[in-house]
Amino acid sequence: MATGYGDLLRTRYAARLLVGTLVGRLPNATAALAVVLFVRAEGGSYALAGGLSAVYGVGNAIGQPLLGRAVDRFGQPRVMLPAAVLSALGMVLFALTGIGSLPLAYAAMLIAGGFTPPLEGGLRALWPGVLGRQDRVHAAYALDAVAQEVMFSVGPLLVTLLVAARSESAALLIVNVLGVAGALSVVLSPPSRRWRSAPREAHWLGALRSPGLLVLLASFLFIGIALGSIAVTAVAYADRHGGGMVSSYLLSALGAGALIGGVVYGARPWAGPAEVRLRLLVAALAVGYLPLTLVPGVPGMTALALLSGVFLAPALACAFVVIDHHAPRGTVTEAFSWLVTTFVVGNAAGTAVAGPVIEGGDVAAGFAVPGAAGAVALAVLLAARRFLAPADRPPAAPAPGDVPADRPSGTPASGDVPAENDRNGAVEPGFRTGGQA
Predict the structure, then answer these.
(1) Model confidence, pTM
(2) N or C: which end of the chain has fewer CB within 10 A?
(3) For 285-294, 362-371, 386-395, 419-428, which range has the lowest pLDDT when averaged over its residues?
(4) Contact 42, 98 (CB under 8 A)
(5) For 24-51, how does the pLDDT look when each residue is reduced to its tens digit (9 = 90+)?
(6) Helix 332-360 and helix 119-131: axis angle, to 10°?
(7) Cα 113 versus chain centre, distance
(8) 3-state secondary structure of 433
(9) Mind listing the domains of the chain with CATH numbers?
(10) Where would I find the H helices in 98-210?
(11) What is the DSSP letter of 268?
(12) SS3 for 204?
């Protein structure tokens, strides 16, 4: 297992791209906590902190697919680096001006969230050209999902340490400087500079004209709801079981489960269509949420949280492959960015739903929300499975520049792997307008 991941990371540029992307996404992973800590240090209320964080999230949800579409049209360096700088400047403005002027504070949050660069989707667009073989690309997707869990665990810890060592404003500034450095590392790499999206058909819906992608996004909206509701209910559970670090135990166990599942899933090749496998993984994920309603003591609940996270990273990694199959030609970064937006919206909705459910019932009712959301996610995939039929057409040829000329020896020739993550090799039928977007 370790040997397989080691070989993957030793591939030229692979480790640089993965690390650069993770560092570049630190501002996004830590924004909610960093904003709350800064606002409280400035004497603001939790309500104000929540409002500012919500504006950041709305900006992020709107900006990701729009920037992803721009990346598909103009390339990664011309979009991602300016976006990273503008996002960081938004946070710098917020850190320097504080909450003395609320309109300015909200505008800064909108800029910071709206210009967050789509590094996540950009990395997944680069993997086929960097790694060559499909089995290695699928393993990279799993490693990507695992690394994401690590980042969302380590990021808040980094903010806490920076606050303790310096100040809340320093934490905001340092994290965003790191974010720009990470984005810079990615866009200066040869694979990023060479990458070009395949020609695209002109259509205002962009990636959303794919019925299969819409089904996938609808399903993962409810998985986002499940995760958001778990975060809120874990806090309510902690309040009833001694408070302190109990909620951290549960959320850390959830992340650890996802990490274990992702590492195991990515360590072996999988036969059969990814679309079928995704339904099985989402079913397992939904079933894993159900025992949370038992609400045992802290040790038992921590074990159940670990179990409930095991299929999260595998489901995400498989979803990345399905996006490969169903994103219309020339929209790969935008398609991956829509998945990020879906998770942001779903997470916010889950947070909003869980609170009233807990107050109207109890903690067990709160933990029933992720189980119900997981069941709906599976129902969407089953009801609309004809739109997620496995692609049976041959892969498209790579666009010039997508496959590095210095491909490591032993990897396939460029025709073996489409440079763009579009296994359909054509746009969705019915949208041929004769021009390029």
Answers:
(1) 0.74
(2) N
(3) 419-428
(4) yes
(5) 999 988 887 788 889 888 988 877 887 8
(6) 130
(7) 15
(8) coil
(9) 14-197 (1.20.1250.20), 205-390 (1.20.1250.20)
(10) 102-114, 119-131, 134-165, 168-187, 190-194
(11) S
(12) coil
